[in-house]
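Chain A, query sequence.
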Amino acid sequence: MIRPATVDDVPSIHTMIRELAEYEKALHEAEATEAQLREALFGEHPTVFAHMAVDDTSGEPVGFALWFRNFSTWRGTHGVYLEDLYVRPHARGGGHGKALLRELARVCTERGYARLEWWVLDWNEPSIGFYTSLGAEPMDEWTVFRLTGEPLARLAES
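Chain A, predicted structure.
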């Protein structure tokens, strides 16, 4: 059901990223191309990784987890930052999301990483309920900040 992504999965990952962006009401922000994903995941020095959820019967890709390593200065170890977790609507409830998270938790424990973390939109109650059912805790005392576009360029030039 869960396996590391291969270069042949890039079109499916790209499609599901766009499906996720549409669900999050931000399709206009999903600018990544298949070529960019292919380079990030399978280039000479990949720094991003992915796992696929595949239907056991049909072999159809029904979900993915895209992640990268981060680092905790307080814990002194790496962790996994889950950039995207997505399961197609028709496959939800089949255990694919939990299996993807289980695999990332296995990666963490096998490699001695201290954390598995991600962001979730505050209006996404189904996902929040799912994550808390697994024991994940919201970090609501933290506020996410982001620089992008013109403010990013302006700071870089200052």
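Residues 68 and 109 are 15 Å apart (CA to CA). Helices lie at 10-23, 34-42, 96-111, 125-133, 149-157.
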